[in-house]
Amino acid sequence: MEASAVALQEQILQLEKQARLLEPTAGKRDEVRKKVIDYGEYFLNHLENLPAFVSGTDGSGLLSFPVQEEPRAVELVLKLLRQHVDQPGLNPASGGHLGYIPGGGLYYSALGDYLADVFNRYAGVYFTGPGAVQLERQLVHWMTQLFGLPATAGGTLTSGGSISNLMAVICARDASGLKSRDVERAVIYVTEQVHHSVDKAVRMAGLREAIVRRVPMDEHWRMQADALDRLIVMDKTNRLAPLLVVASAGTTDTGAVDPLADIARVCRKHELWLHTDAAYGGFFQLTEEGKALLQGIEYSDSITVDPHKGLFLPYGTGALLVRNEEMLLRSFRSHAAYLQDAEHKGPSPADSSPELTRPFRGLRLWLPLMLHGLKPFRACLQEKLLLARYFYEEVRKIGFDAQPPQLSVVAFRLVPAGDANAFNQQLVQALHHDGRVFVSSTRLNGQVFLRAAILSFRTHLKTIQQLLGLLEENSKKLMASQNL
Ligand SMILES: *Cc1c(COP(=O)(O)O)cnc(C)c1O
C-alpha cells in the first residue's frame, strides 16, 4: 500500500477509537442507566410530598459547569439536574399543579420515548418506516373517529397545540384560494377568549394585515353564533372576504366551550372554514358529559387537540385533525430529488406537516393507550369534571365568588372591602410562596380571578381539599393583616 494510504488509515483508526466512546459498552450503559432510573424513581416515589411550586432559585448554578472537552461524572450531572433544573419553578408532574392548563407525564410515555430514541425509527416517510408511519396513522384515525369526522379525514401528530393551530390557519388560507394581494380584505372570526397562539398563527401564516374580528360572547364567555352570522353578512356586504372562524372547545381562562353546532351552521351557510381549538377540552370527548358539551365538533373542518394535556402525556405531543385530508396534503406536500426512492410508496407524515425529520412521537401515545386501555383515561377525565364541580360548590361555601365550570377550569375570587384586584393578587402570591398547590391568575373584564385548572392525572380529591384549606387559611390571614 502507498505510504499516504497507510497514514490515512492510521489516522482514521485513531479517530475511530475516540468516536467509539459515543457508544458506551453494555457495562457502562448498565451503570449509567441504573443511576438515571434511580433518580427518576426517587422522584416518582416522593412526588406526593414534593411542592408544586418552588420560588427563590433560578438555575443559574448551571453556568459554573459549561460544556467542556472532557466527560463529567454521571453523579455530578444528576446532581446538577436535581439542584438547578428539577427543583426551581413549577413542578408540572405534581398533582398539585392546577395552574394554566396542566400537562401530564404518563410513565409509559417515558418508556415509549426511551424506545423511540433507542431505535430511532424514522417516522417521517412511509418507505423508511412503514410500521412507524402506520402506527401514527392508526392513532390519527382513532382521533378522527373519536371526533366523528368522516372517512375523508386525516391529520398529523405535532409538537403541540400552537403548531396545530398554525397549520390549521395555513390550511384554511390555502383552501380559500386567498391571494396575497387580497389579504387586507380577508376576515378571521374569533372571540376575546381565543388562545393567543391563534393570533400568533395568523401573523406567522402571512395574514398580519387581515382583519381579526372579536365576535361578542354570552355571559359564560361563549361565542354568540347569531352575532357571528351578522358580522359575516355585514362583511360580505362591504365586499370583504370572510376566511376562517376559530371556535374554542375549552378556553384557557374559564374552560368555556363555544356553541359548536350553531357556529358550524353559520360556517356552512357562508362556506367558511371552521377550525375548532380543542387543545385543552378535546379529550373530554371520551366522557359522556364532555361529548354532549362538544356536540357539533364533528362539523369542524379542522380540530386541534393536545394529547399532552387531555391524554396526560409529557409535553411535546399535539395533533391536528382535518376533515378532508386532501386539504392538509395540498398545503404541506412537497418533493425533492434525493427522496425519489421514497416518494409515492405510501402516505407519509412529511406530506402533511411542515416537518421532515421528526421524532417518532406516536410511540409515547400508543404505548400508554395499549398498556392501560381507554377505561382509566375515561374515568380520569370524568373525575376531573366532577372535581371541578366539587371545588366550585365548596369554594363558594368559604366565601368566594366563582364561575360555574363548563369543563374542569374554575375561575374564582374573593371580594373583600377595598381593592379586590390587589387582594386576589396577594392571595395568589401567598399560595405561590406556600407552593404546595399551584394556581395561576387571570383577568376577566378587568377583574383579577384565580383559576383552578384541574387536568393533571395526579390531581385527586385530596389535592382539591388541600387547596380549599389553603385558600381559607391564606385569605383569613391576609384579611386579618389588612384589618378587613
Ligand atoms: C394549550 C393551548 C394551546 C397551545 O397549545 P401548546 O401545546 O401549548 O402549544 C392552544 N389553545 C388552547 C385552547 C390551549 O389550551
Care to describe what's here?
- The structure is a single chain.
- The chain has 484 residues and is α/β, with parallel strands linked by helices.
- The protein contains 16 helices and 13 strands.
- Strands 3-9-8-7-6-4-5 form a 7-stranded mixed β-sheet, sandwiched between helices. A 4-stranded antiparallel β-sheet has the order 10-11-13-12. Strands 1-2 form a two-stranded antiparallel sheet.
- Helix 4 packs across helix 13 (363-372), helix 8 (225-237) packs parallel to helix 9 (260-270) and helix 14 (375-397) packs parallel to helix 16.
- It is globular.
- Pyridoxal-5'-phosphate binds at residues 101, 160-162, 165, 195, 197, 248, 252, 277, 279-280, 306, 318.
Bound molecules: pyridoxal-5'-phosphate
Give me the secondary-structure category.
Answer: alpha/beta
* Total E-strand runs: 13
Number of helices: 16
What is the compact description of this entry?
The protein has 484 residues and is of the alpha/beta class. The chain has helices spanning 3-19, 26-46, 74-85, 107-119, 130-146, 161-176, 196-204, 225-237, 260-270, 288-293, 307-310, 325-332, 363-372, 375-397, 420-434, 461-481; strands at residues 53-54, 89-90, 154-158, 186-190, 211-214, 241-248, 273-278, 302-305, 318-322, 401-402, 409-413, 440-444, 447-453. The model has no long low-confidence stretch (mean pLDDT 96).
What are the salient characteristics of this protein?
binds pyridoxal-5'-phosphate; 484 residues; 45% helix; 12% strand; alpha/beta; seven-stranded mixed beta sheet
